[in-house]
Specification:
Elements (H helix, E strand, L loop, with lengths): L4 H16 L3 H17 L1 H8 L5 H11 L5 H12 L6 H16 L1 E8 L5 H14 L4 E8 L6 E6 L2 E6 H12 L2
Parallel strand pairs: 1-2
Antiparallel strand pairs: 1-3, 3-4
Helix pairs in contact: 1-2, 1-6, 2-6, 4-5
């Protein structure tokens, strides 16, 4: 889900409040759970985005679903729903995780390859990436995509390093057809 400016601002406010009240672990757990519920449940997404269901009914349902949440998280979700912004709750939860990673110096990257990479090769790739972001920790997600034919693609935020055979073949095809 694409984060909007509003969702980032709300997430930053929630992060600041959680830090101020020493509830960062609980709120982090709550936002991760909210993200999981949203990603795994299409009905929940439709419920949040429904203009037919009134805000007070949504508050009641959200309090039922997330009743075990920390008081800060429950109060925040209630406030968002009462202000008719519940449709952006998943984006807020996602932005919260991203802001927390930034605060902790964690950089998420995706390493996509055609086959499972040998540990020595993977270490070599990650060492090169680590050298570009000194002082931060990599959080690596590995993806296998046979359509790459060979090689790898590293995606880190807006940066992509494409060293795949499929990409090289595509570039060669473009040059030959000019």
């Amino acid at each position: 889900m694409k984060s909007s400016k509003a969702s980032i601002r709300y997430a930053q406010a929630l992060l600041d409040l959680a830090i101020e009240r020493n509830s960062l672990d609980a709120v982090t757990r709550d936002m991760a759970y909210l993200t999981t519920v949203n990603n795994e449940n299409r009905e929940f997404q439709l419920f949040l985005g429904s203009p037919v269901i009134k805000s007070d009914k949504k508050v009641t349902v959200l309090n039922e679903i997330f009743g075990e949440f920390d008081e800060i998280s429950k109060g925040f979700i209630t406030l968002i729903a009462k202000n008719s912004r519940e449709a952006i709750l998943p984006a807020i939860a996602e932005s919260f995780g991203e802001l927390l990673n930034q605060k902790n110096g964690i950089v998420p990257i995706t390493l996509t390859s055609a086959v499972k990479l040998d540990e020595a090769v993977k270490k070599q790739i990650l060492d090169k990436v680590q050298a570009t972001i000194s002082g931060k920790t990599l959080n690596v997600t590995e993806v296998i995509d046979p359509s790459l034919i060979g090689g790898f693609v590293v995606r880190m935020g807006d940066i992509q390093i494409d060293a795949s055979v499929a990409s090289k073949l595509g570039q060669l095809k473009q040059r030959l057809t000019r």
